[in-house]
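[recover] target loaded
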């Protein structure tokens, strides 16, 4: 198969699914890891895909473009792991938690396994799958119901009405973007409404957002920066962003991911 044919097939798959992994392309195309990476370099150089660790995703576009869960799940992996691990330290036993849909909150869910006696409300089937277990009678998982968005969030009147009757100790909120003027945003109007209902139901709100979210603006504002009691991000956040966030959010927590070639986490 010619390079141009491979690249065309890769691009078609990225546009269809939102993301591709190098390992999967090696198997599908019957070529080497290096060949696939060169093809991705070519496509990225032409502005047709965004290269990420282990693969590529569709190019992030305007304020209403909503990447799917699979596309987002391969972006900023080490940062999301560090954010999830640090955020989990905030949680105490016998707490009622809200977890909004998203890949960073989904990562956090894996770090909640050893914390006893939790009640967790989520509008994400993927998060519910991580947390539900017949071997954990001390854990209650509530799925809001609703209509699924491209990012696998359950939204709409059913989700909003469920949240309106709840009183949560702590909400972990994932966001599409954050900026000084627009606050925390999402590209989906209904997801914005669901997340707003989550915030209203919670005594405290913890926003989880890696450094790439700074300066990204979705069409719908979820909340002002001042409504975050805590914001957990990673150490690649720009200095000016740290200054703005420190002045507006209640507490700014910086996670330090362990990256290749780094001796410390």
């Amino acid at each position: 198969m010619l390079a141009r044919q491979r690249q065309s097939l890769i691009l078609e798959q990225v546009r269809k699914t939102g993301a591709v992994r190098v390992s999967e392309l090696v198997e599908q195309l019957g070529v080497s890891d290096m060949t696939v990476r060169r093809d991705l370099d070519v496509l990225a150089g032409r502005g047709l895909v965004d290269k990420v660790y282990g693969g590529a995703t569709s190019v992030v576009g305007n304020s209403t473009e909503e990447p799917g869960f699979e596309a987002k799940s391969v972006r900023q992996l080490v940062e999301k792991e560090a954010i999830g691990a640090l955020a989990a330290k905030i949680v105490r036993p016998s707490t009622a938690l809200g977890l909004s849909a998203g890949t960073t909150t989904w990562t956090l869910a894996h770090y909640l396994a050893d914390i006893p006696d939790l009640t967790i409300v989520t509008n994400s089937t993927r998060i519910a799958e991580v947390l539900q277990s017949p071997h954990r009678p001390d854990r209650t998982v509530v799925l809001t119901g609703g209509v699924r968005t491209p990012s696998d969030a359950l939204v709409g009147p059913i989700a909003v009405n469920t949240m309106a009757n709840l009183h949560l100790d702590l909400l972990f909120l994932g966001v599409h973007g954050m900026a000084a003027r627009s606050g925390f945003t999402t590209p989906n109007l209904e997801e914005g409404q669901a997340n707003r209902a989550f915030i209203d139901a919670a005594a405290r709100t913890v926003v989880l957002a890696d450094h790439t979210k700074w300066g990204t603006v979705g069409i719908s504002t979820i909340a002002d920066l001042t409504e975050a009691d805590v914001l957990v991000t990673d150490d690649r956040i720009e200095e000016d962003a740290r200054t703005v966030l420190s002045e507006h959010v209640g507490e700014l927590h910086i996670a330090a991911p362990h990256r290749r070639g780094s001796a410390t986490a």
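[recover] notes: Residues 3-17 form the longest helix (15 residues).
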